[in-house]
Amino acid sequence: MSARVYKNVNPIVAQETLKKILEKEPQNIDAYKELGDIAYNNQEFKESVKAYKSLFDHIKEPTIENVPAGVNYLTAMMLTGGDAFTIKELAQKLLPLDPKNFALRSLLFFSDIETMDYQKAKDDIAYIENKEYEDSLYRYIDYQYAARYANEALNDKDAAIAYYIKAAAKDSLRPDSYKEIASLMRTNKQAAQAIPYMEKYIKLRGDKADSKDLFSLGLTYIAAKSQAATDEERNKFIEGGDKVFEQYMNELPNNYVGPFYRAQLWITDNTKAEEKPREYYSKALELIGNNEDYVDQKKVALTYLMVYYLKKEDDAKCKVYVNEILKIDPNNALAKKVQTVLK
């Protein structure tokens, strides 16, 4: 019984047989292909890459018969973090043999993005933009890369968001698309719409969700508050964001980040001395202490408290914060100006 038959009955026996064949016939390209196919079908992608590499190292000019193995090889390389330039080179060599091959066209486009060849990607994205295939063929990953192209090459956040939404529709249980949608919306003056996407991301992450995810949700609430059109909307986002930062502070009670950004969430009117920001900036300063890594954050908190007590006409306390600012930034213009008006 040949190795080709064995692979459909007992892959382990087939692999052993093929290796024995290659010991005697190291130029046997059929054996390399069969080894690659077995490993690929068993999702042993690193092993399949080794076998397919040997196959294509022995092929000077690929033919149409080599395309299926080539697609498997390129896919396995992508899945194992293979060199994007190598993937691109082989995809370009194989595509003319089968110009309408969906897998090859997509792999070439993916490699364009990974190698930042955006000029080439402009042409290669046509299979998506022109909807050249049945919708069922397009996958999560096609729209993921299309979104990256729109964002990275074109700086078109609206198009990137639309593609990520299509990616999420293709695989609604994968969390990554929701995070990307939320991040783009937050910086695209759509923070309110971003909140449910970030919440969906955290929900799908389950036990893997961490404090960084919670912090990103908190930042989204801060952005939504800043972009709110009415006081009612603003107060809704402050209330929602406060719950997020409360949870964050419970999980990381010794980290200044929670109270520092919670203070920013509660700033609603820069002309007033507001109590909540004062409370949380004071807490942030307590946690920062004398840590020189966070001098900039310390200065932000000190500045708020300086201005707070200036508005309260409490010169004694205001002077404390003026002196603290000048201690770390002797030429601070605002602190010097405030100093001149204190009694």
Shape: elongated
State the end-to-end CA separation.
100 Å
Q: How many strand units?
A: 0
Q: What is the residue-averaged pLDDT?
A: 95
- Topology order in helix (H) and strand (E) letters: HHHHHHHHHHHHHHHHHHHH
Number of helices: 20
Q: Indicate the low-confidence ranges by residue numbers.
A: none
Strand content: under 5%
Radius of gyration: 29 Å
What is the helix fraction of residues, given as a range?
Answer: over 70%
Strand-pairing-aware structural class: mainly alpha
Largest sheet: none
Describe the SSE topology.
Blueprint lengths: L2 H4 L4 H14 L4 H13 L3 H13 L9 H13 L4 H11 L7 H13 L3 H7 L1 H4 L10 H14 L3 H14 L5 H11 L4 H15 L5 H17 L3 H21 L5 H10 L8 H14 L6 H17 L3 H14 L4 H9 L2
General description of the model:
The protein is mainly alpha-helical and 343 residues long. 72% of the residues lie in helices and 0% in strands. It is built from 20 helices and no strands. The protein is elongated and about 95 Å long. The protein starts with a helix and ends with a helix. The mean pLDDT is 95.
Features:
about 350 residues, mainly alpha
Short description:
With 343 residues, the chain is mostly helical.
